[in-house]
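Assess this one:

_____
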Amino acid sequence: QSQLVESGGGSVQPGGSLRLSCAASGYTLQDYAVAWFRQGPGMVREQVSCITSGDTANYADSVKGRFTISRDNAKNTVYLQMDSLRPEDTAAYYCNAALGALSNWGQGTQVTVSS
């Protein structure tokens, strides 16, 4: 059964760091474009970063220079390293794996940035 599971969320003070993981089972994540989205309270879901199957990375302007997306193909996992976190980064973070018409979502992981 195909599954996508996020982990690594938590509570951190402003300026802190977290690393989110998006692990796939049942398929090879390397073949997919993987994107991280977030949805804050009362907000629409927005894409913050994506990495193509060819390992080209893109970032939303709001996280550029602070977040880094990467793959570990041996672990079938995509990571989102989040540094210099701000209160406005508080949200539920979701990963999505897409290949053509196929699209898989994880269940989300909560990130809270607060002093």
User: Anything to note?
Assistant: The mean pLDDT is 96. The longest strand covers residues 91-99. The radius of gyration is 13 Å.
